[in-house]
Amino acid sequence: MILEPLCMFSLTLETQTIKMGESIILICTVHGIAKINPDVTRQFAKGSNGDLLCYNGHITQTSKYEEILSDGNKFGLMINNVTESDVNSIYQCRYRFSTVKQMIGINEMNFEYGPTANTTFIEFNNYDNTSFEIQINFTKIFPVPMCSAQMKNTELQFKNTSIMEERIFYKVSFILVYVDGDQCGTDLEIICKVGRSSHPIKTFKPFQECKCKYTKRNKRK
Q1: CATH fold match for the domains 6-104 and 113-214
Q2: What is the pTM of this model?
Q3: CATH fourth-level superfamily of 113-214
Q4: Phi, psi (5° rounding) for residue 138?
Q5: CB–CB of 218/139 below 8 Å?
Q6: What value, to the nearest 5°, has the Cα angle with vertex 171 and ends 166 and 174?
Q7: Is the peptide bond before 143 cis (omega within 30 degrees of 0)?
Q8: Are 161 and 174 within 8 A, CB to CB?
Q9: End-to-end CA distance of the chain
């Protein structure tokens, strides 16, 4: 019996962006054939020990994994509710008697973990009508974001003050100091770009009260 060489296979991550809690798809392509033979062995496994995930359509954890079959020379594995344990791992694809292995790693191009209410902390210090300071702390995020504050036709960039790695995530801090003029009565919106995605963080409406409003209000009393 002739074994198919490893060069006839490829195992790739089809999902463009990995996000925790969502799904990713791994695709095994058997080159040199037009169609997958449903009567031969198809298998997905994980880790250096080859822990079985799927064998000829039989799933070890039905809520976690799904096999994907196509009419062509590919078959795939959908991994649901992605967690940290699903990434930076070796996956194996088997067809007939040959196997290909691929590390599914994360990087700034394929993985995003955006800010949440539980991981985002903002401190706003309003000194007067002409100056203020904003500090943002993210306790869990990936990759390191780029943050800005927008008001009227002005866009201000936050400066990064701290970056710490924690497992596969970052813990980062930013600061913005504004001393350039009167912006009372306007809204200020903080937006952070994490990977390819933009995330509204907080909007202050208005972030600085005008003194004249207080004066008129007091005169009416």
Answers
A1: yes
A2: 0.80
A3: Immunoglobulins (2.60.40.10)
A4: -105, 120
A5: no
A6: 165
A7: yes
A8: yes
A9: 97
- Report the alpha-carbon angle 2-71-15, nearest 5: 95
For the chain, give every domain's residue range. Answer: 6-104, 113-214
Across 70-213, the runs of DSSP E, i.e. the strands, are 74-79, 89-95, 98-104, 111-112, 120-128, 131-141, 146-151, 154-157, 159-166, 169-178, 188-194, 197-204
* Token pair of 171 as six digits: 């813990």
156 — phi, psi (to 5°)?
A: -110, 140
Q: Which residues pair with 67 in a beta bridge?
A: 77
Q: Which CATH number fits domain 6-104: 3.40.1400.10, 2.40.10.480, 2.60.40.10, 1.20.1250.20?
A: 2.60.40.10
> Mean pLDDT for each 10-residue chunk of the chain (221 residues)?
56 96 96 90 94 96 95 95 96 92 94 96 81 93 96 89 95 91 77 96 76 48 46
